[in-house]
Amino acid sequence: MRKAVLAVLIAALVMLVVAPAASAVTLTKPEKQLLGLINKARARRNLPKLRVNAKLERASRAHSAQMIGKDYFSHNSANGESFSKRLIRFGYKQSGCTYWTAGENIAYGVGLAGTPQAIFKAWMKSKGHKAVILTKRFRDVGVGRAKGDFNGNAATFMFTLDCGKRCF
Fold first, then answer.
1. What value does the mean pLDDT take over residues 1-26?
2. Are 122 and 151 in contact (CB under 8 A)?
């Protein structure tokens, strides 16, 4: 009996290590660049790296796309839903946690002002945006980027950064 239980536990562990995560997401090159800049800034301050969370990633991408598609710029969704309620709707839930926190940065730019480097630089020059990036307790991240017509400017890049931490 003991050997059977051990065999099942080993098989389960192998499945966890070998099988790809069902919620894994692949960042686009610009999303990776922005996250790299953010994690370098955090590392310089001895802060932990942010890890991509599939739920936050989907929420951030959807918000960037919605802002482009509906031609608006706000932390709230087009229907007035707050960013924290949006994160919960995308599955980054508070339920079952002893601790839950989240923060969000948004930005847009056209041409060189819409590059990951320009967005990062602008956020780091803003006290509030910098605080989100450098919040010590954040561990999870979603980085969303969408391209489209915004405010009459063709080829605008819209960025959403969602950060958070959930503890059980």
1. 41
2. no
* Inter-CA distances, 81 with 37, 63, 74, 87, 147, Å: 29, 11, 10, 10, 22
Q: Can you spell out the DSSP letters for 41-77?
A: HHHHTTPPPPEE-HHHHHHHHHHHHHHHHHT---SS-
| Count of Cβ atoms closer than 10 Å to residue 117 Cβ | 12
- The C-alpha atoms of residue 94 and residue 98 are separated, in whole angstroms, by 8
User: Can you tell me the distance from the alpha carbon of 129 to that of 157, in angstroms, rounded to the nearest whole number?
Assistant: 18
- Taking only the tens place, the pLDDT of each residue in 27-74 is 999 999 999 999 999 999 999 999 999 999 999 999 999 999 999 999
Question: In whole angstroms, what is the distance from residue 123 CA to residue 106 CA?
Answer: 9
pTM of the model: 0.85
Q: How far apart are CA 3 and CA 46, in angstroms?
A: 44
Band of the pLDDT at 23, cuts 50, 70, 90?
low
Residues contacting residue 114 through CB under 8 Å, at least 6 positions apart: 108, 155, 156, 157
